[in-house]
Amino acid sequence: VQLVESGGGSVQAGGSLRLSCVTSGYTYSTYCMSWFLEAPGEERVGVAALIDDGSRVYADSVRGRWTISHDGKNTLYLQMNSLKTEDTAVYCCATRLTYGGSWYPPDFGYWGQGTQVTVS
Fold it and tell me: Cα separation of 90 and 116, whole Å?
């Protein structure tokens, strides 16, 4: 199982980015998929997730600005609008090939390497 993120970069505050996470090595199903941020010296924090029933959940800090979606094949997206300087971080996608579980990072068994987002 592999997850490969792309789409990060540098952008001015108020701008937008779209992150992509291409998965391989397993057949897509409605397993939970999530985006996490990693800030230096801090633990991973979930920002958006597609959960088993197809619904979307967001952290309070991004709700209304960002949208998580999946193409039904092998790519997870995170549309990031109205970016703020405090959104600067490495963003990783993650999944688990089981149903149920929490948004706690250890519940996710498969991770991408991350993509840097810098907002100035």
Answer: 4
- 3-state SS string over 70-113? ECCCCEEEEEECCCCHHHCEEEEEEECCCCCCCCCHHHCCEECC
What's the mean per-residue pLDDT of the chain? Answer: 94
Q: Tell me the torsion sign for CA atoms 21, 64, 109, 73.
A: negative
Cβ–Cβ under 8 Å, residues 48 and 64 = no
As a whole number of angstroms, the distance between CA 34 and CA 50 comes to 6
pLDDT class of 26 with cuts at 50, 70, 90: confident
118, with CB counted inside 10 A (0-12, 13-18, 19+), is middle
Token pair belonging to 46: 């979930």
Tokens of 31: 């397993």
Mean pLDDT of 74-94: 97
Q: Nearest-CA neighbor of 66 among 87, 92, 89, 90?
A: 87
pLDDT at 31: 87
